[in-house]
UniProtKB/TrEMBL annotation:
One GO MF term: sulfotransferase activity
Membrane topology recorded in Swiss-Prot or TrEMBL: Single-pass type II membrane protein
GO biological process: carbohydrate biosynthetic process; proteoglycan biosynthetic process
Organism from which the protein derives: Sinocyclocheilus rhinocerous
A Pfam cross-reference name: Sulfotransfer_2
Phylogenetic placement of the source organism: Eukaryota, Metazoa, Chordata, Craniata, Vertebrata
Name this polypeptide is given: Carbohydrate sulfotransferase
GO CC annotations on file: Golgi membrane
Family listed: Belongs to the sulfotransferase 2 family.
Compartments it resides in: Golgi apparatus membrane
Main subcellular location of this protein, as a coarse class: Golgi
Length: 300
């Protein structure tokens, strides 16, 4: 980790003495003194880490970078950046969607043996970028259910419609197309879901194990380009490499914003909105996002 990562002002959020983060309006970073204080407890934590805990983390050895992917928080473009850092492409703009998601070019941390996993966790810069949980949820719904999708419609759409729509047409049951946001939320909150979870709406706390892994840099989607470019300069990335701003899918669609998120949550009743907040409660708490319900309820 480079010394330049310690320059920004931070505050501390201690979660049950197990999850310690430094959180600010912008990026979240560690100081050298904090690393020293946590060194002994970190070693104990490392011994409890399994491959499952690091399965979402990508490795870039040249610049000693570990990036935990959070879908719908800029992860496609982060993968493009990692491919350029690794020398697999000369620029992010030339990397197509299928290369990013299906090319299998990038190494994951769980592909290494335990010794090499621990070595990288101790010595590499560990990075996590996240997004306001409700915005991320709505973004995932719009992307996977409102556009044609050969995977999410049959795999998720069909069982969701079958269970939560009483007057479903044969076409809807056969194709899984046309899932409503309310039906999607019913599925999400159901303890007996007809189909399992998916990384696009899995809480970040489950994806990236922030209670076990002491991340060096936690950035937010709301200021993604600024923070990502700050990080790239800090790790010594090529000066001509900047974080891309283009959308990976549905480039003509408006990005999911707070206003768009409000419109979707207006389709839910107060209980459903509260339960959705409860579902993502730890993400709101750990990453210092304000509770959305008082602001949102006043608009309905």
């Amino acid at each position: 980790m480079t010394n330049s990562l310690i320059q920004q002002k931070t505050t501390f959020l201690d979660l049950r003495n197990q999850c310690s983060f430094q959180s600010s309006h912008g990026a979240t970073v560690n100081s050298s003194s904090r690393v020293a204080r946590l060194s002994s407890s970190l070693m104990l934590t490392l011994l409890t880490i399994t491959r499952m805990h690091v399965s979402r983390i990508f490795v870039e050895d040249k610049h000693k970078l570990l990036y935990c992917e959070v879908p719908k928080a800029g992860c496609s473009n982060w993968k493009r950046v990692l491919m350029v850092l690794q020398g697999l492409a000369s620029s992010t703009g030339e990397i197509q969607h299928d290369e990013v998601h299906y090319g299998n070019h990038l190494k994951r941390l769980d592909s290494f043996d335990q010794k090499d996993i621990i070595h990288r966790l101790k010595t590499y810069t560990k990075v996590l970028f996240l997004r306001e949980p409700f915005e991320r949820l709505v973004s995932a719904f719009r992307d996977k259910f409102e556009s044609p999708n050969s995977y999410y419609h049959p795999v998720f759409g069909k069982p969701i419609i079958s269970k939560y729509r009483s007057n479903a047409t044969q076409y809807a049951l056969r194709t899984g197309a046309g899932v409503t946001f309310k039906e999607f939320i019913q599925y999400l909150l159901d303890v007996h879901r007809p189909v399992g979870m998916d990384i696009h709406w899995e809480p970040v706390g489950h994806l990236c194990s922030p209670c076990l892994l002491d991340y060096d840099f936690i950035g937010k989607f709301e200021t993604l380009e600024e923070e990502a470019n700050f990080l790239l300069r800090s790790i010594g990335a090529p000066s001509n490499l900047t974080f891309p701003s283009f959308k990976d899918r549905n480039p003509n669609a408006e990005r999911t914003s707070l206003e768009i998120t409000k419109r979707y949550f207006a389709q839910l009743n107060v209980t459903e909105r509260q339960r959705a907040y409860d579902f993502y409660y730890m993400d709101y708490l750990m990453f210092n996002y304000s509770k959305p319900l008082p602001r949102m309820n006043s608009l309905y």
